[in-house]
Amino acid sequence: MPKIRMERTHHSLITDGVHDHEQTLEAIKPFWVFFVTNTSIGTWLVGVLLAGMRLDFVEAVFVLLVGGIIGSALPAATAVLGPLTRLSQLEAGRFALGRDGNKFPAFMNWVNAIGMDVINNILSGVALVAFMATFDLHMPFWLALALLVGIQALIGIYGHHLIQESSQYTGALLGLFFIVIGIIALHQTDVAPPPVNHASTKDILSALFLLVAFNISYATYTADYTRYLPKNTPSHRVFIPVFAGLFLSLFVFGLFGYLTAATVTQATPEGVMQALQGLTGSFSPLVLFLVAFNSIPSNALNDNSAAYCLMSAGITLSRPISACIGAVLGYIVCLMASNDFIDFFTNFLFLFAHGIAPWAAIILLHWLLIGKRQSQTPSGVTRGCMIFVGVTIASVWLFSANTLYTGLLSDAVGGVDVGPYIGFVLAGLLYGASLKFWPAPQTMSWQNPWKRRA
């Protein structure tokens, strides 16, 4: 590997963005970042959930294709803002939401990143314990988790440049080994799990929305790893690598999860590990090691982006300290997490999608309509922020189909969580109408967002 320098640590990296001379990233690098973070046992678990919804093979492939395309397109679209603004993804939202208004989604995505840490580390921690047990060595879960979190935090402290370089190698390695594991598993199971009946329309829609929610959560991360691309990089050369990395990993590993779902008899991390051990036989130690190792590149990305978000939320700490705070909190939450892992996993994805969808609609529309002419950050809270908060609250209040909360209109739409999709359209319409009929002078002046004012 080439010599890697540490990313700048001062919070001006967030507020002012990267410098001109730092925009030297190769266009292919973001592909590996998002391929490796989605090449995980969590993606495999999504395929298991599809089988649990009683989808037959054709229905599962349809859902994986359509859900993967829709879910990957939105993060790839937000990634385009990276080289244009030179800002991290959440910080780029300040022009539409206002300096104070932007702090709320930044803080919420900091929580989101910690939650993703928990999801990845619960599975990887259990895998590491099981891996050590194959050599008759007892490792307590808290120690296994501490080892993983320590390595993740170290990479997160080093920052963007190490994440980009290491992803190219770990992505290819993990992708190859997980495909081999999938082939071995398919040979062991021989056939796909037969559904009891054909899935209902509700089940197909729920599965489709699960797939979309799984990938759109990356919409708040992607520009973090494209902003070092040269500013004149064509938009399609930003969009395509991010889209391809997310879509390919979701489709391939989700399909393997669906085809091997019959072997998962317990919807717990331990149950998933036992199923993989049974499927891969003498290869199981290697499988367990890879599952444990996989959380390292994924959560290093989470810790680094969480640091960006915490700084965008107004916490003026250095980036390494912010990354450590996220890693430590994720460790604590992991130790306290409920055993009802599947419910936590699905509820987490659906709940955050209610906020991500309207947020993405507003910042993308803002850039398309006035972004190239405006960059002085409005002070306070803008109408874009008010629309974002209002639509998010209404989306959860009316349409949430979550065990944590059921929306007032959830039964009227068949119990399918349509809130994020209605929220995306509604937020876009409201914000677009507000720009047309209520132009504000402070949003029409344009200065360089990365140039510090005297």
How does the SSE layout of this entry go?
Layout (H helix, E strand, L loop, with lengths): L11 H4 L13 H10 L2 H12 L4 H23 L1 H5 L8 H4 L5 H31 L7 H18 L1 H30 L11 H16 L18 H25 L9 H12 L3 H29 L6 H18 L4 H30 L12 H17 L19 H19 L17
Helix pairs in contact: 2-9, 2-11, 2-13, 3-10, 3-11, 4-10, 4-11, 7-8, 7-12, 7-13, 7-14, 7-15, 8-13, 8-14, 9-11, 9-13, 10-15, 12-13, 13-14, 15-16, 15-17, 16-17
Explain this structure.
This protein has 454 residues and is mostly helical. The chain is globular. The protein has helices at residues 12-15, 29-38, 41-52, 57-79, 81-85, 94-97, 103-133, 141-158, 160-189, 201-216, 235-259, 269-280, 284-312, 319-336, 341-370, 383-399, 419-437. It is 67% helix and 0% strand. The protein has one domain (12-340): Hydantoin permease, CATH 1.10.4160. It is built from 17 helices and no strands.
